[in-house]
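FAQ: What does the model actually see?

It sees only this:
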Amino acid sequence: MSVPRFVDLSAPQIAALPADTVAVLPLGAVEQHGPHLPVSTDYVTATEAAEAAVGAVARQGSAPVVLLPGLAYTKSDEHHWSPGTIWLSWDTLMRTLVDIGRSLQTSGITRLLFVNGHGGNSALGQVACREIRRRFGLRTFFAHLSVPVDQGGSGSVTSELGMGVHGGHNETSLMLHLRPELVHLELAERRVPERLGEFELIGFGKPVSFGWTSDDFGPDGYIGDPTGATAEHGKLLFELAVARLTEVIGEAARFTTT
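And it is asked to produce this:
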């Protein structure tokens, strides 16, 4: 079975979707990722993983699901200083997500899963989930390809000291797997802010977060160590993400709180 895409259906077909259909919306970004990765990195990883997971669920017949077009422009203001970054203000993105929820309600959709490829969307996405739930009654869910390192995730390699939050080993590996022709590994260098290790409570993945923009850590705009990235590691990360998202979609279709 091909990937069931919302935009390929007619209005009557959409109205006839099962009540527990999960609409999956990838959230990417168009933002600088240093000299070695394209600005499409977050958009590519989110949309590719979401499409693969939706396709897997459809083939299995384990849950009714449709794939919405991915949202490329999101909240990337931490990279506002750099050429190539196209970002929406927090209130523009919030209104956009809420309006999408409102529109899906009109279409009879009752379950919406955001698949997020950009850590900067996380806090706003959680607020949007509650707003859509409260205003329109949709059951809303917010999933990452993997939990970002700066939000408590554990995906950073040893050389990154838990600080591979942007354009580092994992993201570069994913892109070597998905779009190798767009990766310039010869331009990659280790860019780990070791000074943060001096602080016990404040930092990436620590009890106290802090506001930052990517140029706080140097002019290159990436944070991590992409030098050892490989397509093989990226393939493993991608397959793990797709498998997890496949399970998430199944749970989202039957999720209830009572």
